[in-house]
């Protein structure tokens, strides 16, 4: 009798597993529900009436903009953005949307990745989730940082994000959002008005450049707590000479970035300049130079001429392109060192040459 009961349990268990498998298979084979454009159209009309400037940032839509129906197969919340400086209009938007049958909730930067992040980004609104008739719209707020880029927060920095996502029918543990999975930053860009499936929408004027930036947009806030500890122990050089160096160095960095971006050459802060960022969120004023790193494989023969066009004077070139290559320029009495890095197996190395002695280091 016991054996018979166990056999029956096994049969029922196997049947249940087969049923679950069949249901999952049917779900996978079921064609996706077509994206409903009406709520997006209503959202765009409401923002235009306020008026609140918005721009389409959804990569899935932007990459198919030339298609007849770029929204049709969208399976995640459609991403738009507005500037945080329009926050008063954004708050008006929420009340108007609520009156128009939309559901909305605000996203806040209550738990920033860097606890000692600047006050300008702590506890501030970073975006909104907006929904109607099963369509979810993700409105991102772009915050102006420094003079040249926009910062956006991470959804996980909102203390109550899990429940907010669930309330909008989104997975609470792995949000299917196009943007704000991590903190990010993009260079400021201009928009252009285009017609998309009957809607007049602003999109980035250079979609390819925007998409390229989004592929490496992860923003890492420097450790302001570490910097504070450093300055508490060693003090901060606020002499006129130090301030003059910083001004020149930032100007040099800005111009160098423009040249390398134009050449499509990725780069990073290297050596003493990287140490300054890591240790004190600033430049090391006694270093008197700026250091950048570049993969040797990204070198372009146009690099030196383009820097010279922008006012950089070539100081010296050490090594060869395939071994310990290094280029130095002078710009407004400051030296810029470009160190080239090489991939070797699982390691990356760079070489250096001592200017006076000619000694090489690896």
UniProtKB/TrEMBL annotation:
Domain Ribitol-5-phosphate transferase FKTN N-terminal: 67-249
Location(s), subcellular: Membrane
UniProt keywords, alphabetically: Membrane, Transmembrane, Transmembrane helix
InterPro entries: FKTN/MNN4/W02B3.4-1, FKTN_N
Pfam family for this entry, one: FKTN_N
Domain of life: Eukaryota
Membrane topology designation: Single-pass membrane protein
GO annotations of cellular component type: membrane
Principal location listed in the UniProt entry: membrane
TM helices/strands, residue ranges: 7-29
This protein's record includes keyword Membrane: yes
Entry keyword Hydrolase: no
Protein name: Ribitol-5-phosphate transferase FKTN N-terminal domain-containing protein
Organism the protein comes from: Cloeon dipterum
């Amino acid at each position: 009798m016991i054996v018979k009961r166990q056999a029956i349990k096994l049969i029922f268990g196997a049947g249940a597993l087969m049923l679950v498998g069949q249901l999952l298979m049917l779900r996978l084979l079921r064609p996706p529900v077509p994206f409903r454009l009406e709520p997006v159209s209503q959202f765009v009309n409401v923002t235009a009436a306020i008026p609140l400037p918005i721009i389409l940032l959804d990569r899935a839509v932007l990459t198919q903009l030339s298609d007849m129906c770029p929204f049709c197969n969208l399976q995640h919340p459609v991403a738009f953005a507005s500037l945080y400086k329009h926050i008063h209009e954004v708050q008006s938007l929420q009340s108007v949307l609520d009156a128009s049958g939309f559901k909305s909730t605000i996203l806040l930067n209550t738990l920033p990745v860097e606890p000692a992040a600047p006050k300008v980004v702590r506890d501030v609104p970073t975006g909104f989730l907006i929904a109607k008739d099963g369509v979810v719209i993700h409105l991102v707020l772009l915050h102006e940082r420094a003079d040249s880029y926009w910062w956006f927060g991470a959804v996980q920095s909102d203390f109550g994000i899990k429940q907010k996502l669930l309330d909008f029918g989104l997975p609470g543990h792995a949000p299917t959002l196009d943007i704000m999975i991590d903190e990010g930053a993009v260079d400021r860009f201009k928009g252009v008005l285009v017609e998309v499936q009957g809607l007049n929408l602003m999109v980035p004027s250079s979609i390819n450049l925007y998409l390229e930036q989004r592929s490496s947009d992860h923003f890492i806030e420097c450790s302001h707590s570490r910097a504070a500890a450093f300055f508490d122990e060693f003090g901060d050089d606020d002499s006129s000479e130090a301030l003059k160096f910083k001004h020149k160095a930032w100007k040099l960095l800005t111009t160098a970035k423009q040249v390398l971006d134009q050449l499509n050459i990725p780069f990073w802060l290297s050596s003493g300049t990287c140490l300054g960022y890591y240790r004190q969120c600033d430049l090391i004023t006694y270093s008197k130079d700026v250091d950048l790193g570049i993969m040797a494989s990204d070198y372009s023969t146009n690099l030196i001429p383009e820097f010279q066009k922008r006012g950089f004077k070539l100081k010296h070139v050490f090594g060869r392109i395939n071994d310990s290559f290094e280029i130095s320029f002078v710009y407004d009495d400051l030296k810029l060192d470009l160190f080239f890095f090489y991939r070797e197996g699982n390691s990356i190395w760079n070489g250096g040459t001592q200017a006076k002695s000619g000694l090489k280091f690896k």
